[in-house]
Amino acid sequence: MSQFEPSIFHLFDNLPPRAIRTWLKLYAKVADYASDHFSFFARRRSQVYEQLECSLLLNTKPFEFKGWRRVVDHQFSNTPLSAKGSVLHFPGGRFNVGDIDTTRFPTFPALYLAEDAPTAYREMLSLDPNDKIDGLTAKELNAAGNVAQFVVKGSLGTVLDLTDAEILRDFFEAIKSIILPTEFTRRAAQIKIPSMRPVKSLKELRETLFRDDWRLMPMQFDVPANSQVLGQIAYNAGIEGIIFPSGKTKKRNIAIYPENFKSTDSFVEIVGEVAGSVEGKRIDKRSYKKYI
After folding, report:
1. Which of 78, 136, 162, 228 is in Cβ range 3.0-4.6 Å of 140 for a Cys bridge?
2. Contact 241/159 with Cβ under 8 angstroms?
3. What's the total number of domains in the chain?
């Protein structure tokens, strides 16, 4: 499905009290619409869920990597390969669900790595190349040493590579017949918002997965983003990782699901010397449970 555009929202500071009360009533209607809309698509996906899982699993490949990077805040530098943080914080990561609404959306962890150091750092802080924090660029902040950086290598058996423009073709074929009921179009018109119609092409589907504002849906309406839904299906299918392009540097990132290592020889391992206090230098089927 498509997503709401940020332009329909306004800052409270810009509105008088009367307008705020009106906005709150409108927001309640929009939130109800978004929840019902998500539930409709979830129900329709459940009808072809096995097909969706197969469409992803059959398009995976083995993937070995070395020289990739993991960047974490210094407070987490003793457990750099832990994926626990990806579920503890709202709303989770692009391809995993965190603490959005655990009664409706079970959490599942992911370990995020990047192809090189600049990408890892900018992804962690959501920094574009020209962005600054307190007057410092991403490169300058990195040099200042407020993070810990680790070189990693690994071997995975089943990886979905979203840098391949055709990799989701079968997935799209399985969902393209979903039609939004006219009731949703009518309700959207009544509250003067976009009706969030189903994606109409593979290109549009991919665009929804790589949006910079992917957090909009979970933050505004407590429902997972499209990329998180795809991650849930991949995770449930037993896929071990999803490669995706960075919106910050155009290099590659990977979201790894250590829990799916349980019956495989897959692993992720820190390369080189590290402090003696560092735990979990290698995550595999014997050790993953400690770090999810």
Report:
1. 136
2. yes
3. 1
